[in-house]
Amino acid sequence: MAAYPTRRDEPLAEKRKLDVWSEEEEVWSPDPSLGHDYSAKTEQARREEESAPRPVKIPTLDHFKPPTRFHIAELFSVRESGSQAVLSAAKFLLGVSSSLDGEPLRRCSGFWVDWDAEKKTGLVLTTARLIRTKDAPYSVWTGGQEYAPNADVTVHLLNGTSAKGELVYYQPHYDIAFLNVEVDQPIKLPSLREKDVEFAQEVFQLGRDNSLNLRITYARAEYLNPNLFERHHNVYFCSPDGHDDDNNEYDNGGLVIDLNGKVVGMVNDPERFGSFIPSSILLNCFDSWKKYRYIGRPHLGMRFEAIKLLEPAHVDMLCRMYNIDDGLVVREVSKGSNAEKCGIQKGDLIECIKGKCISTTVQLENLLMSICKHPSDNKNGRNTEVHISVGLFQTLKKCRRTVELTATVSDLGEVIARGTRVS
């Protein structure tokens, strides 16, 4: 902060703050142009300040960091409702950390999803990357991630205490994990919205840093298909804050809420793409885990994108050529998969699965999980095979056919063996 320009004989000179603050050294440096007397007084004041006992830090008087963007003009319209929503949801938001062999591994966020009054334990939902020791070298679809389910996990509670957490389950494909933790008092649970967030809807991304300070990012759900490096169930953020914050990693596993404070998703991979897992997927995963202690998913051996999220001119072209404006485009077929053996090729269009029209990849993932839920419970077992009817439009032959696809149910991350890549 530069000194005010002045002359020594100016009457108001002594009343102004004339010191120069050096941020690098964090010391007061007097302006040499002010004369020896003033410099001596300033130096004496500095010595007295250094020798005085350090003042007690009072939270109510603290200059709080990190700041939020609620003060900028673009957010004036949501300042009040957004603040109320954020503060309400923050009561469910926790810090979680992991270590392996005594060495810190990850620090993320998590939130309450269940409470067992008899056992006095709470269930925390967070990201599976909490225990991830190795990321995928190239893409999540090519595999290579490694996890340490034996890692020590800690839940950082809002009262400043920490409790040992127990990893009860993790699902690498959907990138979620459940932790049990003992708590003395009953806990209130957040409300997860059954209907998915609408594209372009205003949301807040919430996380807690390593001091439990609340991190708030304003964003909108973005019109995008998941890219090559992301799973089908992810929705993206479009945020004026960007995604280059060094502390974004803390938000992993945190809440995504609407302006009413309802949970619409869980933060996933904010460092690279700024994405989140929508609440419909979370509810489906939680329901499967409660019923089976396992979250199964049929591996179709294909990667898709939604027609409705393509450029409008592209959709118009497909409509003119094939009279189709809804469904999924097959972007990749796993080499040697049943899908390949059934004649499904890259560029083909999936119009329906089990007789249900499919418009988005999130809708697809919810349908796949529902296939694994059966009264006999036998469809949810590991390595169980299920038969799925697929309504297919073959673009090269310009014809429709129904394919009976056999898929293996698994709770591992699906790997697509690379064939010829689609540009």
Provide tags for this entry.
single chain; 423 residues; alpha+beta; Thrombin, subunit H; Pdz3 Domain; 3 domains; 7-stranded antiparallel β-sheet; 6-stranded antiparallel barrel; globular; disordered N terminus
Give a description of the structure.
InterPro entries: PDZ_6, PDZ_sf, Peptidase_S1_PA. Residues 1-60 are annotated as: Disordered. Residues 1-20, 38-52 have a biased composition (Basic and acidic residues). The chain is an alpha+beta fold. It has three domains: 13-51, no CATH class; 70-292, Thrombin, subunit H (Beta Barrel), CATH 2.40.10.120; 296-410, Pdz3 Domain, CATH 2.30.42. Helices cover 16% and strands 32% of the residues. It is built from six helices and 23 strands. Strands 17, 18, 19, 20, 21, 22 and 23 form a seven-stranded antiparallel β-sheet that branches. A six-stranded antiparallel beta barrel has the order 3-4-5-10-9-8. Helix 3 (279-292) runs parallel beside helix 6.
Find the CATH topology of the largest domain: Thrombin, subunit H
Task: Give me the strand/helix succession.
Answer: EEHHEEEEEEEEEEEEEEHEEHEHEEHEE
User: Which stretches are poorly predicted, pLDDT < 50 over at least 5 residues?
Assistant: 1-27
Q: What percent of residues are in strands?
A: 25-35%
- Ends apart, CA distance between termini: 52 Å
Number of helices: 6
How many beta-strand runs? Answer: 23
Looking at how many chains there are and whether they match, the oligomeric state comes to single chain
Helix content: 10-25%
| CATH architectural category of the largest domain | Beta Barrel
CATH class of the largest domain: Mainly Beta
Shape: globular
Structural class: alpha+beta
Mean pLDDT, nearest integer? Answer: 86
